[in-house]
Amino acid sequence: MCVAVCAAGLTGVGCVERRIEITSEPAGALVWVNDQQVGRTPTQASFLYHGVYDVRLQLDGFEPLVTEAEASPPIYEHAPLDLVAEMVPARIQNVQHWHFVLEPSLESTLSREELEAGLLERAGAMRGELEAIPMVGDEEDASDDQTDAGDPENGDDVSDEP
User: Fold this and answer.
1) CA distances from 91 to 6, 16, 17, 56, 114 (A)
2) Of 17, 50, 66, 101, whose CB has the highest number of CB atoms within 10 Å?
3) Tens of pLDDT, residues 114-152
4) CA atoms of 24 and 44, how far apart (whole Å)
5) Is 44 left (phi over 0), alpha (psi -120 to 50) or beta?
6) What spatial distance separates the first Cα and last Cα of the chain, rounded to whole Å?
7) Which residues pair with 40 in a beta bridge?
8) Residue 9, CA distances (Å) to 45, 63, 76 in order
9) DSSP characters for the chain?
10) Dihedral sign for Cα atoms in the order 91, 15, 74, 23
């Protein structure tokens, strides 16, 4: 009996089918997994290895989503059970479910005036932050002005009398 099970396993009768089912809210987003386009949600893709995958979703009117998702192994995919699972004369399905929620883009939720006002506000804030940062040349000029103020080599009067 054991020989028959092993022989069936060696002939490829049994196998583990690994699949990722990807959904999004809203549906219809174009999906890339590890920079390979896999389709529009809801979609499915097969995978070989468990681990972390880079995922990107894009849909008009929504912010692009770039994230990571993990395909976690079930208990029968850990050694030494994985060998037995591959040899069982039946098809085993390992289905991972990934669901993503997309955020509406600013262009689709704000008017043109609101977008422009926000842009001007952020530009003003950035200008204020940049002006608060001392420039490298300004620091050197300030230290030069302080050292030149009473330098006898430059012909300056360094006496205490006014």
Assistant:
1) 15, 6, 7, 30, 56
2) 50
3) 888 988 999 999 999 999 999 887 665 555 555 555 555
4) 12
5) beta
6) 113
7) 30
8) 25, 47, 16
9) -HHHHHHHHHTT--EEEEEEEEEEESS--EEEETTEEEEESSEEEE-SS-EEEEEEEE-TTB--EEEEEEEPPPGGGSTTHHHHHHHSSSEEEEEEEEEEEPPBPHHHHS-HHHHHHHHHHHHHHHHHHHHHSPPHHHHHHHHHHHHHTT-GGGT----S--
10) negative
Q: Would you state the pLDDT for residue 108?
A: 76
| 91's tokens | 């098809």
Tell me the per-residue pLDDT of 79-116, one tens digit each, with 9 for 90 and over: 777 666 677 777 878 899 999 999 998 877 788 898 88
- Which tokens sit at 4? 């028959």
- Rounded to whole angstroms, how far apart are CA atoms 132 and 141? 17
Q: What is the CA radius of gyration of the chain?
A: 33
Q: What is the pTM of this model?
A: 0.58
Q: Which of 45, 133, 162, 53 is nearest to 95 (CA)?
A: 45
